[in-house]
Amino acid sequence: MSARIIDGKALSARVRGEVAERVRALKAQGITPGLAVVLVGEDPASQVYVRNKAAACTAAGMHSRVIPLAADTPEGELLDVIEALNADPAIHGILVQLPLPGHIDTGLVIETISAAKDVDGFHVSNAGLLMTGRPLFRPCTPYGVMKMLESENVSLRGAEAVIVGASNIVGKPMAMLLLAAGATVTLCNSKTRDLGAQTRRADVLVVATGKPGIVTGDMIKPGAVVIDVGINRLESGKLVGDVDFDSAAAVASAITPVPGGVGPMTIAMLLVNTIEAAERTQRGSAE
Ligand SMILES: Nc1nc2c(c(=O)[nH]1)N[C@@H](CN(C=O)c1ccc(C(=O)N[C@@H](CCC(=O)O)C(=O)O)cc1)CN2
């Protein structure tokens, strides 16, 4: 292995420490930032993520409210919960943990969250603002990836960036952020012909498909920076990314591990978005 390991755990701890300082400053002005997380159902992975989000919030000095709802909660009831949170002045950020049970329209749920409290950055208004270069909230995972690239001093101006996976929550916003930073962006999807021909052009390669091992070392340009967004639990219980780590690390100049890479940054950037939402409220009330 020759690649440098990009330590998401260490960077997320730094970011969370900076957020904690901003929380202290805001509290001194009488505002406690508050995050509400709605969890529908009992998906074990979602339960872990929600618990970790709440714990990170509390550790940073924020107010955290977790709202667990049964898997068969009617859609209308979930929308009522969101409306109540939209109107609650103690709550500055709202997120609904995904995925949702099949009987619920995810798009409708996201659009019901007030765009000003949409700390996931998934609301169509926030997606539009990001696309037009005026971001309010950047989606946490791609935002975390940008923070990792910045911390590694990766030069993005004019760089070839290739993203594998075109989801609304990672791939598409990732493309917008890399484009805004001056990269030439290629966004691959499940229909892309000859994926390796695309990935081999990448100076920065971001993989977010949920398919373990879809990218192997022979698909990577020597010296590329490889960001693995995938989190896949194998039957053995082992957690792996979308990139075959050993073969990729032999070729790349830097690579994120799984676990301990992008995942912890997702939670750190959620705290950043929440403190920004609360600071914005404070500025609004001071004007
Ligand atoms: N409303 C949202 N739902 C989902 C999001 C999101 O950003 N907003 N992203 C993912 C899940 N996710 C956050 O919610 C998330 C996934 C993984 C991690 C993480 O820290 N992973 C650890 C490993 C944890 C484990 O042992 O399972 C790591 O990679 O080191 C944090 C957040 C889908 N849903």
From TrEMBL:
Gene name linked to the record = folD
Residues annotated as transmembrane: none
- What family does the entry list? Belongs to the tetrahydrofolate dehydrogenase/cyclohydrolase family.
Subunit comment: Homodimer.
Listed pathway(s) = One-carbon metabolism; tetrahydrofolate interconversion
**Its Enzyme Commission number?**
1.5.1.5, 3.5.4.9
Q: What does this protein do?
A: Catalyzes the oxidation of 5,10-methylenetetrahydrofolate to 5,10-methenyltetrahydrofolate and then the hydrolysis of 5,10-methenyltetrahydrofolate to 10-formyltetrahydrofolate.
Domain called Tetrahydrofolate dehydrogenase/cyclohydrolase NAD(P)-binding: residue spans = 139-281
Q: Which InterPro entries match?
A: Aminoacid_DH-like_N_sf, NAD(P)-bd_dom_sf, THF_DH/CycHdrlase, THF_DH/CycHdrlase_cat_dom, THF_DH/CycHdrlase_CS, THF_DH/CycHdrlase_NAD-bd_dom
- UniProt keyword Chaperone present: no
* Segments forming domain Tetrahydrofolate dehydrogenase/cyclohydrolase catalytic: 6-120
For this protein, the record's HAMAP family field holds: THF_DHG_CYH
**UniProt catalytic activity:** (6R)-5,10-methylene-5,6,7,8-tetrahydrofolate + NADP(+) = (6R)-5,10-methenyltetrahydrofolate + NADPH; (6R)-5,10-methenyltetrahydrofolate + H2O = (6R)-10-formyltetrahydrofolate + H(+)
Q: What is this protein called?
A: Bifunctional protein FolD
What species was this sequence derived from?
Castellaniella daejeonensis
Q: What is the lineage of its organism?
A: Bacteria, Pseudomonadati, Pseudomonadota, Betaproteobacteria, Burkholderiales
Residues holding NADP(+)? G165, A166, S167, I231
Q: CDD domains per the record? A: NAD_bind_m-THF_DH_Cyclohyd
Under the heading Gene3D superfamilies, the entry gives: Leucine Dehydrogenase, chain A, domain 1, NAD(P)-binding Rossmann-like Domain
Cross-referenced Pfam families: THF_DHG_CYH, THF_DHG_CYH_C
Keywords of the record, alphabetical order, are: Amino-acid biosynthesis, Histidine biosynthesis, Hydrolase, Methionine biosynthesis, Multifunctional enzyme, NADP, One-carbon metabolism, Oxidoreductase, Purine biosynthesis
